[in-house]
Amino acid sequence: MAERLCLVHYHEIGLKGKNRSTFENQLVTNLHRALKSFDVRDIQRISGYVVVESVDRQASEAMADAIRRVPGVARVSLAYRTGLDEGEFIDSAIKALGEAGEFHSFKVHARRSSTTYGRHTLEMNQLVGSALCEAFPDKKVDVHNPDVTVVVHVVQGSTYVYAASAPGVGGLPVGTAGKVVTLLSSGFDSPVATWMVGRRGAVCVPIHFSGRPQTSDMSEWLCQDIVDALAPSGVVGRMYVCPIGDKQREISLAVPQSLRIIMYRRLMFQVAERIAALEGAKALVTGESLGQVASQTLENIHAVNECVNIPVLRPLIGSDKQEIIRRAQEIGTYDISCQTAPDCCTLFMPRRPETHARMEQVLEAWDSFDHAAMLEELVDNIEYKDFSQCPSYHAPKGRLRTHHSELGPAPEKRASEAQ
């Protein structure tokens, strides 16, 4: 009886040359993490694929769906594996085509990566195609634009046969592109930005700026829900929370009303940069989209960037809101972000925010309050929560200043012990 398994296809990894095995091994590691709730017998690399086998040797659609959500996976096929016996792989081809759903036309695409198998691929196409024509007499063969393609691939002494195939999220395995600190809110944009950078292989360490104690901590729990929603992709290792409400109030009393938002964001960027130094992260990530709100004009972006010394990545800079919302629905954060919660973004907002800040005015306002002391106090009181979804995340050995208070499972159970 043929074994049914998940055949994992990748695209970009195949272009990595001498580094290819590093990317493949990381993908295997990430798949083990993503499939820990399934009975997995083995995950192994073969020529051009990763093969996932279940204990009962009958891989399920649920397993394939979990694999598709892992960055680095271009496509997943539920395939049958047989030996080189032609009767076996012909039977598997008939079974695979029967599981392909509604179709009117098909073709056979045979491949041979093993020189130990005697038949040419053209002979294999004819052999399997004839059997399928007999098994499905009401269907026609279309070699140019078929509804279904049955793939028969001989590789490393086995034959893999599949017709059902579905796209994955693509990208590169998390853990192959370093570490970034992402500025995470409970809105639509920043969770999508976090996922997009993670999809390119980066380990993401979000920091959420809470309006606490000027607001409730509802936004913090929504952000934890967002991180949990991102668990299938495995991009987040730890989330930091920085209560900034009191500092925003101080800033609002010290600077011109129109420049408040820029001052808030400069302080946030400096706190995030300090986290990046602790974590060994090489960049910050935000969910900004050019022109979407007042703080996201080119002049204001420049005014905020000026206060940090590491790159700031903005993966959504050219996206509109509808594109971002569609992506949020795809990755599972949309319903969480639809919930309203007071946070630092709603605190002490000016009636007429500056949209084209001039650098000399920004620096004058920045020097009108003790931002350095604020930075140190905020860093001293940062809290964090670790997550188990990212096998590539390694907690930093150093400390920010004196302690971190770890976030607990509920507001009334928040731990306050020094770490």
Write a brief caption for the model.
By secondary structure, this protein is of the alpha/beta class. It has 13 helices and 16 strands. Strand 2 and strand 3 form a beta hairpin.
Can you describe what's shown?
The protein is an alpha/beta fold and 419 residues long. 35% of the residues lie in helices and 20% in strands. It contains 13 helices and 16 strands. It has helices at residues 20-34, 61-68, 86-98, 121-135, 189-199, 218-229, 245-254, 260-279, 298-305, 321-331, 334-337, 359-366, 371-380; strands at residues 3-9, 40-46, 49-54, 75-82, 105-112, 140-141, 148-155, 158-162, 165-167, 179-183, 203-210, 238-243, 283-285, 312-313, 383-386, 405-406. Strands 1, 2, 3, 4, 5, 6, 7, 8 and 9 form a nine-stranded mixed beta sheet that branches. Strands 14-13-10-11-12-15-16 form a seven-stranded mixed beta sheet, sandwiched between helices. The longest helix has 20 residues, at 260-279.
The rounded Rg comes to 26 Å
How does the helix and strand content classify structurally? alpha/beta
Give the proportion of residues in helices: 25-40%
Average pLDDT, all residues: 91
Task: Give the beta-strand count.
Answer: 16
Contiguous runs where pLDDT drops below 50 for at least 5 residues: 401-419
Largest sheet: 9 strands, mixed
- Cα shape: elongated
Q: Write the H/E string, N to C.
A: EHEEHEHEHEEEEEHEHEHHEHEHHHHEE
The CA-CA distance between the termini, in Å, is 55 Å
What is the percentage of strand-forming residues? 15-25%
Helical segment count:
13
